[in-house]
Amino acid sequence: MDAADAFAGAQRAAGVIAAKHRGDLAGAQQLLAAFPDEQARARAFELLAQLVLSILRAQTDQSMDELVQELSLHIAAAALSPPPA
Fold this sequence. Notes:
About 80% of the residues lie in helices and about 0% in strands. It has helices at about 5-20, 25-35, 40-60, 65-80.
């Protein structure tokens, strides 16, 4: 996978999240199905996460470790919360 493919995959992953956020589950499913395989999908979401954390780090001046720790706390809290209705 070259860099162009990696960034196209990350853009597709962002599209999945945007589609889900606006309630377009069919569109999100279409975008997910466009990945050639599970490994490409995982790499795309990993790159997207790295890019988002880098943007957040630049805006907050927090270290990556601080951001990941905060994110982990949010994940734990979300896991304990009931799913939205």
